[in-house]
Amino acid sequence: MFHLDELLTLCSLFFVSDVEASEGKQVIHKRVGDSVELLSNLPAEGVTSVEWRYKNTRVAIKGSGVIRNNPFKDRAKFNNITFSLTIRDLTLQDSGEFNLITEVKDHPGSVFITLQVHEPISTNPNVFSNITQPGPNGFCTVFLECKANPHSNVTYIWTVRNQSSNGPRLQYNITPQDGDTTFTCNASNVVSEKLASETLRCSNTTGPTASNEGMFRKERFEDNKNKSVYFVNLLDV
Fold this sequence. Notes:
Blueprint: E1 19-22, E2 25-31, E3 36-38, E4 47-54, E5 57-61, E6 65-66, E7 76-78, E8 85-87, E9 96-104, E10 107-118, E11 126-131, E12 140-147, E13 155-160, E14 163-166, E15 169-174, E16 181-189, E17 192-200, E18 216-223, E19 228-236
Parallel strand pairs: 2-10
Antiparallel strand pairs: 1-2, 3-8, 4-5, 4-9, 5-6, 7-8, 9-10, 11-12, 11-19, 12-15, 13-14, 13-16, 16-17, 18-19
């Protein structure tokens, strides 16, 4: 069901910092092409051994530096003073778990860090829309759909006037007295966000015309409140 019955938190809250904690494990979010520095947080003295692993494969060792046949080739850099590990030019395939294995003053330690690399939303989302002519009740029903590239792991928020609704699809009623009504789609993931807007008006001339019927595609909308199912032709605008 796509109604604006609930006011939702502004889209900015969907963004998180690069580093977050998840059940005692550190999680780092980065964009494709970024660099990431994995900190050891070890003391300056008393460190006997340091070893970085990625998916249980050794990447760097204290004293030896970066392992020649590590999974990141020449994109990995080890700091032999701070014991941090830097990976540059990140790809989606670099997502995974790192393990820092240490020994400080004869005390062994192990820390796990999860790296998640995300594809940023590259362009403004596409908005698909359709609007009916005024019915006996005097209002037009608007059907909207928002799609961003990439399509996976994207959060959608529709805003109209002072109301918000989450999800890629929206069904909303407007009247001729409302005049021009602007619908804004915010598409976001952990590392980026993009906006797109569509302004519609309710009148006797609204609805699809014969000249653009070929540009429509049929989509199903469910109205659980009224126990109805709609099959709507959405126009790519």
